[in-house]
């Protein structure tokens, strides 16, 4: 009320009303995303103002596309999306976990517990869980030759949950059964091979070195990994070869187009011959550059059947293209800036900024270069390269939905493989970790805490179970049955997860269901922080000029 | 032939662009139409400059604008919640305790778009015998557009290339409140969106053999100017020698009466300063367009414009931009030869060179337009063309006595007293005599002329007053009609437009430079906090201030010494 004195226009919510608003928002968001978790989760259909449709079950996409208006929900959504930005996965889990923490707290608060005790309990439980995670994780020794099998399993767990929608679109329901996992397995191979291709020992993995290219062509099962590069443009001269083998690749950033001289100079001539001469003089500089490239070509390609390809970041104008074509060189202009870096990694050689001092060492190599035309779009494939350090995932699909979803799936898959390689550890999936952590908290940690903070630990432990519960619920199983049987197994000292086909406990290690270690750690870390802050809110005020500003 | 690529960024820029492309589409149609005025066919502007030909996946040939248009998008699956809406809402929300999801109704096609779709499906009916019925329909269409244009797509009749339209999205950005430079922070920092815009542009640039430049239309009244600045910076990086001609357009409403509090007006002033400084640093020639009120401007004897409708205001801006681009499309001839239907070809490079490299070396130019252009041949009325040009650039000084000014004037489709088209040489003579008669002559003036007037396409708003004739001639003996005329009564309009680089734009720059100094530099003031919110460090603000000072320098040659010394 004191605020009313300060500003009569202020809108205020106090004490329990504020708290309940926060709790309701968290629960509401949880409700929205709950059904999308796990391989058996359902799909959401987003409809845009213009009637455009997007089908997705990816939590990150959903949160980004939805227009959320409740400030608390926005805060939670931002935490979850930040989670995705840093680790590439776990958006839905974060939202569910925060929602569940709030739900458990609500029960305690209704019974008269002060939020402060809960927050203290959360803090203890969080630290204990993180310690437990360190013990629980399965180390993966990467060494020089990473274990492809483990990587594949990780990638598969991520992808299976994402790709459902793709198959739904492409093959309708009849084929859903087999192809669903078929495509996921195919993508798994692609993603793992891509990451291993760009990986350099002792350096962080730069996923930008994997180019993701899409073509609206054929079917999603034609998606493949190109060890090399695919460019989205072709040569612009009718006489250039459309296909060449054994090619030298020159990657350059040199302007091969005629630019007007800076000064506004006139052109005065009295006959055609004179004019020719002047045009030639104006062009001489450009031609000089082209000639140097042709000289190099003649040097390296003399007496063998090798070919020469120039890929330029700047423009190449028709007369220059003509000269190149006559010398039997394939020329591509205006390459993407990022592709210049990738080209060098894929083909070798170096990117040159000037054509002075060109030597054979500047050149890269590719076994095969060919052009593919789809309508007015041209694609240039550069394949069969030696020792690629960059590669392209070529996504194909019959329509834009399919392509967009495979793209999202590939992006997540890449990041989860990257995480595994960098963490050198994985965590058993299918809910096994959550059940084990709960048991640990209740059996060991709760006793060490004094007083009412125990309630916080308990709430935290219960909240962890939201993951296996939701997995079960989405598979159409009975939640309580599943949780009880899982807990029984854990009490007997076995580490088990949930088989979402049968509802029976399984050993995730045998089934190859793993989660990313860093993703799990992030969830455990960020969830309680945001939940604690929301719980400690005792007043919501909208009066300030800054409150209306979009944050 | 040298290609130009067009970029449109932001809401009002797309409004303008939509009109602009409607004109081009109309020109294309009239050139092929045997019934149309032969002037459209003979004076053929080279449309390949702006258009590209391609084909679809099915092998159907297409002819589309070489255009990248950037707008905003919102997915409409709301998760509603209380506090942002209203308090009563909030309490209801707590009581019921659940989250409601609502999917808003997609915007239906209006009558005009429906008729376009129908026409596409059965083209035979559109030119059948039922002419009387057709015109009734057209009247309905026009009325429907007059009353209900909510989006720029509502009146567009052009086929765009699928790569042309790009929608920005920001999960936490509210595009309804996208009204200052800082509000686009999220979008600009999203690497993938900026990259995608570059990709779209690259698609069009890559296929150009000799690109003459990029025309960039930006709505600089809000967050889009920050998006555009980022985009322009990338263009400057990627296409080093490609010239950028920038039009900053504004909806008159955004400049409307200031009923704001102090903080808002400071934000407004800073936004203007920051976006002007940022945008001008990455382009070669800048043309600010957007007078505060068109309805009360000097054009009002001929035009009836409702300021609150962006549909109206954008039509005038688009017509002016169309006139400016006419010389880019004229046939190239030697300096001595005289063509019957056009003269004074320019390309973007030459225009930039004429206006910004000579005289004062000032890159900010004012745009003046006469719509419709006055009749020319009558010797007495000749002074008119000068008098009838009215500025579309805001905040400039009226006096026009700058001996160092440089101008480029475009006259197309001019008529004489009797309503006959004047020849190119007549236009030249009369313009020359006007300049002869002036007291202070500009340092340099370039004239482009073409016979081809501005066609008025069907979805053009009804903004002409009753004293305008069928071909845009000014009727002296007209009955006082209240009903404004539109595309049904008027076929074409003669136009004159002028880009002017003179000291007239000095107040425009000074005001921006001044407000940055006043609000932005002092520590701890509202202004500096605002700038910090927008993500500018102290040094960046100083850099911007310096850039603005540099733009002012050409007007104060005596300042050179003092500012160079530090």
From TrEMBL, chain A:
Protein name, UniProt field: T-complex protein 1 subunit zeta
Superkingdom as given in the UniProt entry: Eukaryota
Function: Molecular chaperone; assists the folding of proteins upon ATP hydrolysis. Known to play a role, in vitro, in the folding of actin and tubulin.
The protein's assembly and partners: Heterooligomeric complex of about 850 to 900 kDa that forms two stacked rings, 12 to 16 nm in diameter.
GO terms for cellular component: cytoplasm
Main subcellular location: cytoplasm
Cross-referenced InterPro entries: Chap_CCT_zeta, Chaperone_TCP-1, Chaperonin_TCP-1_CS, Cpn60/GroEL/TCP-1, GroEL-like_apical_dom_sf, GROEL-like_equatorial_sf, TCP-1-like_intermed_sf
Entry's Gene Ontology molecular function annotations: ATP binding; ATP hydrolysis activity; ATP-dependent protein folding chaperone; unfolded protein binding
PANTHER family cross-referenced by the UniProt entry: CHAPERONIN (PTHR11353)
Record flagged with keyword Phosphoprotein: no
Keywords: ATP-binding, Chaperone, Cytoplasm, Nucleotide-binding
Family membership noted in the UniProt record: Belongs to the TCP-1 chaperonin family.
Organism: Oryza glumipatula
Cellular localisation: Cytoplasm
Automatic annotation (TrEMBL), chain B:
Localization annotation: Mitochondrion
CDD domains per the UniProt record, alphabetical: misato (cd06060)
GO cellular component: a single term: mitochondrion
Key word Mitochondrion present: yes
Keywords: Mitochondrion
Domain Misato Segment II tubulin-like: 2-73
Protein family (similarity comment): Belongs to the misato family.
Name this protein carries in UniProt: DML1/Misato tubulin domain-containing protein
